[in-house]
Structures are given as C-alpha cells and as structure tokens.
Structure prediction request, 470 residues.
Amino acid sequence: MADATHADPHVPPSAADLPKPFALGALGIILIGLVLLAFIAGLFFVGWLPQRAAQADLEQQAKNTANPTAHVRVAKPKPAPDTLTTSLPATLAPNQQTTIYARATGFVKAWHKDLGDHVQAGEVLAEIDAPDTDQDLAQGKAAVAQAQAAVAQANASVDQGTANQKLAQISLDRLKKVGAAIASQQDIDNAQATLDAATATVALDRANVTAAQANVAAATANVDRLATLVGYEKLTAPFAGIVTSRTVQVGSLVTNGTGTGNALFQISQNDPMLIFVNLPQPQTAGIAVGQKATIAIREFGDATFAGTVSNIAGLLDPNAHTMVIELQIPNPDGKLLPGMYATANIAVPSKRKLWVIPANALMMSGKGAQVAVVLPDSTIHIKPVTIDLDTGASLMISSGLDPADQVALDPGENVVEGAVAEIVPDTASATGAAPAGGAGASASSSAAAPPVELTSATAAVPGSATAPTR
Prediction:
C-alpha cells in the first residue's frame, strides 16, 4: 500500500526522498583560492608591469631631455694666415679684339688673309672695287683744279685793278698840282671819282680771290675725303694678331657701314691674354696692381701659368659685392686661346684677424650662423658667429669665437644649450665605432687646422665664367 502511494505521480515526494545538496569541502575552497590568485597574478604581469616600465622609460627620457649628454668631437679655432689664396673661375679674353667692317661701297675684288692667319699692323686683308668712289675722286680733283683757276683769275683781276688804281691816283695828283689855272674843278672831281672806282674794284677783286681760295680749300678737303674713302678700298689690319673670322667673298657687294652683312674680318691679339675675375669684397682691401697670380687650365693638366694683376676696377657691384680685376698672362707661343675656362689663384694679403674652423661645426637656425662650444665645466654653450669667408671646407670667423674655445664638430640633436658634453677623440670614430650620442661623427680628423684656400664658392659671380669687358 505504501509503495502504491509513493508511485503515484500526483503525490509529492517527502524530504527523505530528495538528493542531498552539494557541500564544498576545505580542499575545494583552497583550490578556488589558488585559481583566483593565479588569475590576479596574470592580470598583474600582463597589464600593470608593462605600463610601469613604459612610465619609467618616459621618466628617463624626460630626464635625458632635461639634461642630455652629447658625445662630440672638438677642434680649436686656428688663426688665419696673413695671406689668403683666392681661387676664382674666369675665362680667357684677348688683349685686343676688333671686327673690321667695310667703309667703301663696292664689290670685293680680292681677299688675302684667311681664318687663322697671323697678320701684322697695316697688312692688307682684302680689296674692294668701288668705281663710284673712284669717279667721285676724279671729279673732286677736277673741282680743285677749277677752283685754283678761279683763284688765278681773281689774282689777275686784282693786279689789273691795282694798275688802274695807280693810274687814277697819278692823274688826280697832276690835276691838283697844276691848280685851277689849267684844270677845272670838274676835272679834279672826275679824277677823284675814277680813283675811288679803281680802289673799290681792287677791293672786290681781292674779296673774289679770298672766295676762290676758300673754294679751293673746300674742293681740296672733298678730295681728301674721297681719297680716304678710296683708301678704304684696301682693308688693313689695325694691329698685329690672328684672323679669327672671315666672312668676305670675292664678288660680294659691301656697303659703307657697320651692319651685320658688312662684318668682313675679326682679328684678335692674344699676347698677352687677359683674365677678368670678380674678387669678393673681403679681399678687395688687400689687392694691388702688380700682385702675382697662378692660372690653372684643365687642358694643360698640372701646368700653370703666371699672371699679374694689371688693372683694378675700384668699384664694387652693389648686388654681388664683388669687384672686377684684370690679370695679364704672357702668351708668346699662342698656347692660350680666347674663351678658355680657367681658375685664377690669387694670393691676397689679409689685414684682419680671422679664426679658421672646420665647416662641419656650423649650426644654422633662425638666429643665423652659430657654433657649439664645450665650456670648461663640460657643458654646451651656443655662440652666434660672423662668417667672413666660406671656403667650402673651412669657415673664417671674424667675430664670436675665442682662441681657447673648443668647437663641437658635427653637432647632433643632443647638442643644445646647457647639455652635458662628452668629448670623443677622433681615433674613436676612425675605428668605425660611432659615438653613443653623436650625430654621425666623421672618420677623418678635424682637429688640425684646415687649409686656407678660397674656392669659387666664396664669390657670387654672375655668369662668373664669362669675361667682363673693359
């Protein structure tokens, strides 16, 4: 009966029939605690420790930025020598050069000198047949002869008038001498009138002589002009030189003038040769006529040519701040040719105190040219400087440096005002080991004084390779 009642699904089970609840023992509690501790430790290592390390790095970087350590090589300023060699680009130019034009109108009859021929002063280059000018000369000579004949005729008239004047004077004197007893007053008056007329005629004839002589002078001047034009029918060299251009051809029509079609020859005098260079303003105070220079030309290798300063412009270009000077180079063998590119090395005495430092010490900023110097307490101090000359490899400083300064070379980003400096010897970089905080230190030593030689970078020459004219 009891089993039937329990089996009835509509009757709820008693408490004795339910399963026992789960009970967590001491071991389970320990295991759960260990799992929780492991989870918390994992979160600690994954999250907080990296964040702490990053924070430490940021604090160290901030500390380094506030007090950076710069590893630098240094060099002391060297005094510039008393004489600076300035190397400037230039172009050779002839001592004299001229273009010969036709002054006579006519046809080219012959030419006697060709391109490259050497000529002497006065030597005939070409001949022009100018029949019109020849006819004008003949006509002018006839006009001179006609004027001279007019002078002779006027002189004859003067002689005849003078004779008539004398005769009239004699007649008047006779009548006055015999007096009124024989000669009437009318006769005396007539004789006086005759004398006055003869005197006037003589004066007129003499005026005619003067006019005729003036005509002779004018005709003679015209003949001289035409003779000069006829002389231009022979083109001659104005000076000794070499023919560098010939455009004349036999039978060509040329006219008197300087048009393009009338440029028949060009002659250059190449001994001595000239060089015009634009000297920078800092060297102008020491340049003088007579100073020597060395000229180098690529085509002649290591061979050099001696030059001498012959003329100084005495005026600076207001834009480039350079002054033109002229050098002369002897060229007796004609090896040097006009238009050759050359380099002029001029030793210019310096009258100012300059300090030379390597060019890789320069720091440019919005404040201008600066250099970093290492103070005795091993800190960096930034100094503004005035660059007097930039030779490319070296800088010549006129103000801002002291002889005892240790100038930092190849300054990097750590080279700032107040930074702690650690001087790295040149031998360290020479072995290939880069300084820890340096900015690409050079492998070559810069502590020695750089050579003081000014290059073309020193001067701003407009078209500097071109030769200015005198």
Q: What stands out?
A: Confidence is low (pLDDT under 50) at residues 1-6, 428-469. Residues 69 and 420 are 5 Å apart (CA to CA). Residues 131-232 form a domain with the Helix Hairpins fold (CATH 1.10.287.620). Residues 131-178 form the longest helix (48 residues).
